[in-house]
TrEMBL record:
Protein name: Sulfotransferase family protein
InterPro entries recorded: P-loop_NTPase
The organism of origin for this protein: Sinisalibacter lacisalsi
Tree of life domain: Bacteria
């Protein structure tokens, strides 16, 4: 999670969407009073090699107007938590940005990231045993209500959406940043995986109906 004062952006970080690469790139536009939450050690090392600012100002946060917010921002702080912690003028005046990803695709990456394949657990069983992971991103960055954000960048067309949102410079900074890549095998496509996991497909379609409708994602099968 990042609050970048120079660009007047609040980045709410959802899960399994390439958000770490976006964070690393956005860090390069931050000043000393921006909020930057910590990454895991290898990603912090990559951020440092690129010459960007690391984790800072995420505890007992100091704001440009001289006020402070007690508590701690975390990597995946929800929009509601951030809204409650930041000065009202910043929440109203900054653009709230997040990244969204097809939930069917995101779960495949989560399965491989957690080593389900190496543990001998089928994808279908992984999904059925981890129902709480299916619709996690709407809890972080709601699609409706008072905590709805301003800009939802789609993982599937990130370059185009960032250009349309006026974030072309951040996209250019992202080129060459590949944080947390290389875990998922290339043959693990949505079509191939869900063809063998029809129960998982039905469950994701049920629990993620709002985001599927909002972004036009296709239900496999």
């Amino acid at each position: 999670m990042i609050i970048c004062h120079p660009l007047r952006i609040i980045f709410i970080k959802t899960k399994k969407v390439g958000g770490t690469s976006f964070e690393i790139a956005l860090s390069g536009f931050c000043g000393p009073d921006c909020v930057i939450t910590p990454l895991v050690a290898p990603d912090e090392a990559l951020r440092a090699r690129l010459g960007h600012r690391g984790a800072q100002n995420f505890e007992n946060t100091a704001w440009p107007d001289g006020s402070r917010s007690p508590g701690r921002f975390a990597a995946h702080s929800t929009a509601a938590e951030v809204r409650a912690a930041v000065p009202a003028a910043i929440w109203r005046g900054y653009r709230k940005v997040t990244i969204w990803r097809d939930p069917f695709d995101a779960l495949i990456s989560r399965y491989h990231w957690r080593g389900g394949d190496r543990k001998g657990l089928s994808f279908n069983d992984f999904v059925l045993r981890n129902r709480g992971l299916i619709a996690v991103n709407p809890a972080i960055a709601p699609l409706s209500g008072p905590d709805r954000l301003d800009t939802y960048l789609r993982y599937e067309r990130l370059a185009e959406d960032m250009a349309d949102a006026g974030l072309g410079e951040v996209w250019q900074a992202m080129e060459g940043v590949r944080a947390k890549a290389g875990v998922r095998p290339p043959e693990a496509t949505v079509e191939a995986v869900y063809a063998e996991a029809p129960e998982a497909a039905r469950l994701v379609a049920e629990l993620c109906a709002e985001e599927i409708a909002a972004f036009g994602y296709a239900v496999p099968g």
